[in-house]
Please model this.
Amino acid sequence: MKLDQSVDQTFIVREVNSLALKSLAIQSQYLYANVYRYWNYAHQLQSIVSTSTRLILYDLDCFTPACVIPLSFEKALNAPFPIPIVDTRLLDQYKSLSLEQSHEKIYDDICKEISDRIVIDLGLSSSQSRFVQCYLQKINLFQSIDFGFQKSIPLIIEANHRFYQYNLSIELLEEVVIKHLPISRLRQITKDHTEYKFILISHYTRLPGINEKIQEQCDNSLFIVDTKSSIFSEIWKQRCDEKFPLYGHQLDKISFFVKRAGQISEIMLPQKVCYEGEKEVTIYGQYKSDGLSTETFPLKFSKVELPFQINDAIFIDSQTNKEQAYLIENRFYQENSVLDVRIRFRFQPGFSPKLEVLDSQNRILKSSLVDRSLSLEVSDSLTFIPSCQISEFRKRKSAEAIQRLIHPDLASQFNRFIACANNIQQSSISTPEIEQTIINLKSAWTNCFRPNNNKFFILVFDKNQDLSPVIHAYNQLETKIKTLNSLVGPSSIPSLKQAYSTFIYILGGGYALTQDIDLDFLFCSETLSRPRKNSIAWDQKILAAAKVACTRHRQELFFKLFRMHTKYRNKHFFETNEYIWGYARLLLWYADIYSFISSKTYQENYTLLLHYCLSLNAKDNRNTSYLKDALISLIYMLTFRERDPQFVNKESQEYLDSKKLCQRLAETPILSRQANLDLPLNHVFENILEGSATQEQVRNMIEID
Model:
């Protein structure tokens, strides 16, 4: 598709802030996905769309979006319908609109259950199910077949290079689809957010009975489009003739920070809506100087990095996962060491934006977004644990473990380890045999990972390193745990539940080696929130989840639990010993303060944890363990000061409350065996809080495991 004949191609992209689109090729054009969806079905939506409408679109046929963004609307001259306005300034406010289950998982689960039914009907081995599932996914069943009013669909099924005839019942298909669609979640969202209109787009709804069932269960709060009737090509032809914009884009809030006379000035780009199809808009950054808006500022160095934010958050590069700064270079420094410069932003919806710096002669200086370089000042005292020291700790501990795990003698031990795991899976095994196998399994695993009581754990590793024996062992373990997940429940015999708990413990001991294994079940909020009588291995799952949270996806799942309530302990997760132990370790082992977690989230979590600690009786020995890990968490969270100097600053209420906690714990010091400290944890926390912690104290705080 080409929206403009002067460009080679047009990309359909998700709604993101304008700077995220800088990576597109200069001559490439883009159209936002929700804008495309709206115009595709605009003729169907006019009964619910007006200039006062805020519209949410759920398209289950596409990959899961990073976030859900509402569309608002304006009338435009010559446009047949109201045009959508895209606003990406407040993405964090829309998290409650997201579906908890990914679109990919919904589709996979549907194909999995259908393939299981087909295998049974054809009398095939259950092992053939995955081949049938892959085949169903490959033929794109729901988009390639016209269901019409048929009672069944004749299919040629491929399974492991053999073909079978099968009539797929439409009734069965509807039953499976309705079971796996996130209808309860959609019903809850539409009930909680009546300020929006909701649209559902999906080829699942081509099944004759699906629409009625969805509307019935969602109280008619969803508008379901007819995917057979789309008009984008007609709209595009009309747009070319009538010259109306397809959409408007509210400019993001982009701020740069410069130091002038010892004070930080914020240079902001003006806010306005730009429209697709119109000429490029040029705006200049402004800041207040003596009450007046000013564009120029002096550049006194040959090069300088300006910190900047977009929509009140730092900008993280998707490739390097690092905070970005704006590098400006004065190529005329030899002839003029001080230039008056201004920042220019050129923007045309549908094309990559251009960020430029001009001097007083309108010469364009060299500028670019770069990974922010943080030169930590070396001093006798610190206000946080530097992230570079944490990173070095992770590399060092991992290198020590790798040296152990690549030892050639380990291969036989891994084989013994897997043999023990296989025994537990056998349905015919007796209770005494299970108990003995558990002992053997722990022994085999300990020989591999805990020789001579030394703990080895891999937090980071190069995939080029030859760790195939241990990775193979954990890949095999994945299949065992999935089998046990289906076999073991609260009513199972104790030895089988003990075996399950042992597997979870061993999975956790894999740390980053498990990064390619599907372990989402460890983080499942639904199962972890159940009452005690309906749960098994709850504590082991929480601890293991923290140990294996080596990927961004797993970290998101773990952090998401923080404020949730669990009936197992009848508390919020962050109020439980197991979760706060894991939270502290995750911050040390894996978390990157420059990654996806917003300053607001860190601030809120810090405040919640701090206030809960203040509510506890420190003299009660039952609270000592919790307070120890909570203090470790608070100490590691102060590392966020490296990213945001205003985090828990001395004028904040959080700082005053932190001091109050330190004073309260002065009478009952909290000691840590894990950290090689000459002070109680509460004293170290206070020293880092005030900026009087020594380099040695900071180094020793990193040594907990």
